[in-house]
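[Q] Does anyone have a clean structure-token version of this?
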Amino acid sequence: MPRVNKWSRLNRPANKGDSRFWVDPGLDWVAGDKLGVMATSFEPSAGDSVTIVSYNNATGEVRITRPLDYYHFGRAQSTGDLYSGVDIRGEVMLLTRNVKIIG
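[A] Here you go.
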């Protein structure tokens, strides 16, 4: 199955210890998909790799198999108007890929 939505941004802050966070609604993410939640602090290794338990297509709520190890900044609107055009909301990347090898 081709994947249309390969990344999103956090729509609200995700705290260390949270087992859920919010991204854009309407994505094609499903239970079992693996995600990378990118670092939003000055520590570049403060990212999380997680697995989806459930994704609510209407609200954008993502429930994950284990609590987050780090805090990740999120906001409903872009921060570009506050930081000279730079959107500093945390990125969430879809790591699950389908690979087809034809020999």
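[Q] Thanks! Anything notable?
[A] The chain has one domain: 1-98.
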